[in-house]
Write a structure and sequence with these properties.
about 290 residues, alpha+beta, Jelly Rolls, 8-stranded antiparallel sheet, 15 strands, ConA-like_dom_sf, Beta-glucanase/XTH
Length: about 290
């Protein structure tokens, strides 16, 4: 083999190793509870819920702005009462949080996806939708894009929610707290399925959620860094990250059309329309196309 061929093979090996390693669970994440409820099959991680415990994992680092994606195959069959969550959250009582919660179903019913946004410890911004595919049959990608202008929830790169920065309208926006990335599966049959009417049937346990394609492309915040350091590193104009580009300050026209389609065909609950809970429409509901 010529030196040129050797170099090419080595180069390809390095490229392939780089692309594979970025998706490896143990580079980015660690189990946070119930280690005996984890199994690894190559690049796939499985977490189970049984009548002893659920399980969860967390990122090894915290981040401020960027994009986080995980491919998930949800619990098959009768998953009523179970919740599988994928979310970002900061620490403390005034935390910020971006949630995907997948609410289990009785067989034949659609899985519901609940999203929520907490800012300074305040949530109550739930939206629920069903999906345009069966999320238990194959892996699908779920992403959170977060920059200084918006937070976008994406399913297979289709936006299902966009939460805009409306600080100019007096609405707080999450932009100054580093966030970890988390996932968990647990029993929530007091509320998850039909408002808690349908309970978990433990005869169908264990309930298994499968994960692959772990990807975090975000600004990492060292644990010792001060808020000012993090703001300078991740939020200032000194270093322009791809997610700060002008095209990502709002949804593109195509994405706006996709979101309108999702809302028209798949949304089943929007807090903005819930006048019983919110007699006065929340300010952000008057302004954003979310």
């Amino acid at each position: 083999m010529s030196m040129a061929s050797v170099f090419l093979v080595l180069s390809l090996a390095i490229v392939m190793a780089g692309s594979v390693s970025s998706s490896k669970f143990d580079e980015l994440f660690q189990p946070s509870w119930s280690l005996d409820h984890f199994t690894y099959e190559g690049e796939t991680l499985k977490m189970k819920l049984d009548n002893y415990s659920g399980a969860g994992f967390s990122s090894k680092s915290k981040y401020m702005f960027g994009k986080v994606t995980i491919q998930i195959k949800l619990v098959e069959g009768d998953s009523a009462g179970t919740v599988t969550a994928f979310y970002m959250s900061s620490d403390g009582p005034n935390h910020n949080e971006f949630d995907f919660e997948f609410l289990g179903n009785t067989s034949g019913e659609p899985y519901l996806v609940q999203t929520n946004v907490y800012v300074n410890g305040v949530g109550n911004r739930e939206q629920r939708l069903n999906l345009w595919f069966d999320p238990t049959k194959d892996f699908h990608s779920y992403s959170i894009l977060w920059n200084q202008r918006q937070v976008v929830f994406l399913v297979d790169e289709t936006p299902v929610r966009a939460h805009s920065n409306l600080e100019d309208k007096g609405v707080p926006f999450p932009k100054d707290q580093p966030m970890g990335v988390y996932s968990s599966i647990w029993n929530a049959d007091d509320w998850a399925t039909q408002g808690g009417l349908v309970k978990t049937d433990w005869a169908h346990a264990p309930f298994i959620a499968s994960y692959t394609g772990f990807d975090i492309d975000a600004c990492e915040c060292p644990p010792t860094a001060s808020p000012a350091d993090n703001a300078r590193r991740c939020g200032s104009a000194e270093k322009r990250y791809w997610w700060d580009g002008p095209t990502l300050a709002e949804l593109s026209l195509h994405q706006s059309h996709q979101l309108l389609w999702v809302r028209a065909n798949h949304m089943v609950y929007d807090y903005c329309s819930d006048s019983a809970r919110f007699p006065v429409t929340p300010v952000e509901c008057l302004h954003h196309r979310h």
